[in-house]
Amino acid sequence: MVALDFGIKYNIIRCLERAGCEVLTVPAKTSADTIQALQPDGIFLSNGPGDPEPLTYAVDTIRLLLGSVPVFGICLGMQLLGLAMGGETHKIKFGHRGANQPVKNMATGKVEITSQNHGFAVDLNSLKDKSCALSHINLNEDSLEGIRDDSLKAFAVQYHPEASPGPHDAAYLFNQFAKVMTHAKA
Predict the structure, then answer these.
(1) Does 162 qualify as catalytic in the annotation?
(2) What are phi and psi of 37, to 5 degrees?
(3) Residue 61 host element (H or E)
(4) 160 labelled catalytic
(5) What is the predicted pLDDT for the residue at 165?
(6) Catalytic pick from 15, 75, 112, 118?
(7) Which CATH number is associated with domain 2-185?
(8) pLDDT value at residue 117
(9) Out of 96, 118, 136, 160, which one is annotated catalytic?
(10) Which of 35, 70, 128, 183 is most buried per CB count within 10 Å?
(11) Count of alpha carbons within 13 Å of 162, Cβ hemisphere only?
(12) Do 112 and 105 contact (CB within 8 A), yes or no?
């Protein structure tokens, strides 16, 4: 799989490898054509700092890649995925910071204790007419923490599952991505 590096944490690569992925990390400005020529089984959109909206090169690349192979994003990766899907982002007044943020997985009903460090978020209302769905919600303020689009085989979370605050509450996401890639190849 190819990981687009917007500021990737080494532990994310370890978690992906632990899930059985062979990870090739490429610079953030790598073109969609170059990525497609690598014939990856999946694409990972990494975390990173700052406002996602000026990163139009990344949004354009992601938009071109969507639907070709499974995509998984974390933090900034989720914001970029949301923009590529036609959504909007906004600055959060105080941001989400800390290692004890409760997030509800809407599919299972389970609460995950998450680590977060971001100042921007995808606007849930901007995605209402799109094919993507809410997958996770922040229980402190009912804000968007995860999206998925099964038709595109794309999903993302706003928090950091590699940080292991739960300590293993969100580790399933890496295995889930590996399974999506395996099923997409079949």
Answers:
(1) yes
(2) -65, -25
(3) helix 56-65
(4) yes
(5) 60
(6) 75
(7) 3.40.50.880
(8) 75
(9) 160
(10) 70
(11) 19
(12) yes
